[in-house]
Amino acid sequence: MKAGKILGIAFCTVALFSAVSLEAARTKTEHVLVPYEGTVAGQHLASGIYRVKCETNGATAKLTFVLDRKVVATVEGQLVNRNQHYSINQVVYDTKPDGTRAIMEIRFAKKNQTIVFKE
Q1: DSSP 1
Q2: Alpha carbon distance 116, 103 (integer Å)
Q3: What residues does 113 pair with on adjacent strands?
Q4: In 3D, which of 56, 39, 44 has the Cα closest to residue 96?
Q5: Which of 60, 69, 71, 105 has its CA 20 to 30 A from that of 48?
Q6: 63: burial class by Cβ within 10 Å (0-12, 13-18, 19+)?
Q7: pLDDT tens per residue, range 96-115
């Protein structure tokens, strides 16, 4: 009887920690260098090193860009799997005919996924 109770408590504890770990895996914060000013999903970003919080839910990602402890932009993008792992965090731009830049994707180091934005 005692062994069953202990086993039940151990199982509940493992389930609780697994749920917490799963939730933590969905939110990630990285430092990302944005080398050029531009727009991301229609919002302006100056060049700088941002703390980027990425919350994923399935194939949807919500990114919050923080610069100097201030939230500068919160945007949504799509999480896309790629066939390669990236060695560093990268920002991919599209240069418009008028010379302005739009951030099309952000790649995170040691992942084979990228966040793709619609302009």
Answers
A1: -
A2: 9
A3: 81
A4: 39
A5: 60
A6: buried
A7: 999 999 999 999 999 999 99
